[in-house]
Amino acid sequence: MRHYWWKILSIVLLLYTFIAGFLIKVPTIGNLYETIRNLFFHVPMWFGQLILISVSLIYSILYLRKPQQRYDILATEFARTGSVMGVLGLLTGMIWANYTWGAPWNNDPKQLGAAIALLIYLAYFVLRNSMTDLDKRGRVAAVYNIFAYFIYIPMIMVLPRMVESLHPGGQGVEGNPGFGGSSLDPTMRMVFWPAVLGWTLLGVWISTLNVRLRTLEEQKHFS
Amino acid sequence: MRQQYTFYGVLLYVASTIFVLYLAMEHPEDKVWNGLFWMIQLFICVNAVAKSFLAESRGRMLYFYTIAGARDFVLSKLLFNAVLMIVMSLVSMLLFFLLLGNPIHNPWTFTGIVCLGGCSISLVFTFLAAIAARAQQNAALMAIMGFPLIIPQLMLLMKISSVAFADVIQAGLGQLVALLAGMDVLVILLAVILFPFLWKD
Asked: Is the ipTM of this complex over 0.85?
């Protein structure tokens, strides 16, 4: 119980998200109508992705400080789950965009940013797979991971504020492009933050499972 | 001697690319001109800067390793490539003026932007070339890694350089230039901190 309480918490929070997210009364804003409920699924994906790639960054730094195979596996798997959440965020966003903006892809700066993030992390996996030597692979991949993170984060913090966007928080529009939550309706806030926590915990859970699988594979490989 | 060969090779690459572009486009509109210019810079950079690490043989790297520290080595590479890229950008700017017409209202501002832009693109690609060189000298890898990472700088550059096309100076230009310069400093810092880890063999 001491070790897996957060997994139970994740399940409970996600159940709550699905039940409450579909049942609560939502405010009608503009042409959003009922699609506003997608907020509980689309936006937490981005929170989850950012948190997971940040964890990946921390393990990459740890790997460079102290080269242990474990750190390398952790960095890779967290980046992998982060990318999966990025894909899901993009897909849920495209469904939402289809209903509110009229087309799944609008060349919105934030859609472009999300696509760039995917390309950056796909390049990370291509880079990893292009090397066979374990030590070298870990080191080069960690260097790229750190470099890419520090280019990517300023980009998504600065660019969306600079150009016109259909999302909240573009140029000339009120609000935070990272979605602050202060502009959120109180009833929606009651579901939104638990949803963020629930999805992020699920991401961490998937990552740790993958890490265990990979560690077992490595052990089989070497014994 | 070999360096000279590379230099003239890149110069010829610049000239022939822009000539082909001229045959295809003749005199494009302002916006197309701007977009094409920076895309050509990007490709010149991939070709010119990729050579800097990929063409070094193993023995030569070992030689550099014995005579210089990692930090000095990467800083000199960054400096050399920045200067090389600034020269190439200026040459291609002149060729663009000559062949594709001159839609620029503020030529001096644009020259400054071109220098800054060439410098920022080359910094990012120099470091990526260092990474790609470690990954079995794979040149295609550089494009895969580089293009997504260069987008922020390119978007900033296109936005800044659109100023040179207008008669009036737009507000917030200084902020954008400062942002670009800040990103350059960030890239240099990251390169200096991270390169020693790539260096070890």
From this structure: no
